[in-house]
């Protein structure tokens, strides 16, 4: 897969995140809150991924054991917290602001993780990358516009 095609695929999958947040927020309203909605979302997602694994005949690989460090399971925990909190807050700030704020958090955290080489090769946060993050911050402020009066909820 070419670099451009990979980047386009990431943009496309990123485009569904606000819809996922809005769908989960509606699900939270129909169920007993954002944690239940996140649980159902992860349950459905797990079934879909299980079917995908079976259809693609992906080998199971090594079974989890004591050789795996405890922190290796944090991905699922972080994903669950992200989906539950996003489900809770997207109705309060709106889809555009929620996505922009999430992207800002991702950019800032990614720069720090890259700079210090956490779980990967080190990539210093030079002035151009920091300038890019600053532009993201400016974009977030323009989209989220916390100084405006929020619209009434549906």
Automatic annotation (TrEMBL):
Organism superkingdom: Bacteria
Annotated transmembrane regions: 35-56, 68-90, 96-118, 130-147
Pfam families from the UniProt entry: DMT_YdcZ
InterPro entries: EmrE-like (IPR037185), YdcZ (IPR006750)
Keywords assigned by UniProt, alphabetized: Membrane, Transmembrane, Transmembrane helix
Protein name (Swiss-Prot/TrEMBL): DMT family transporter
Organism: Luteimonas colneyensis
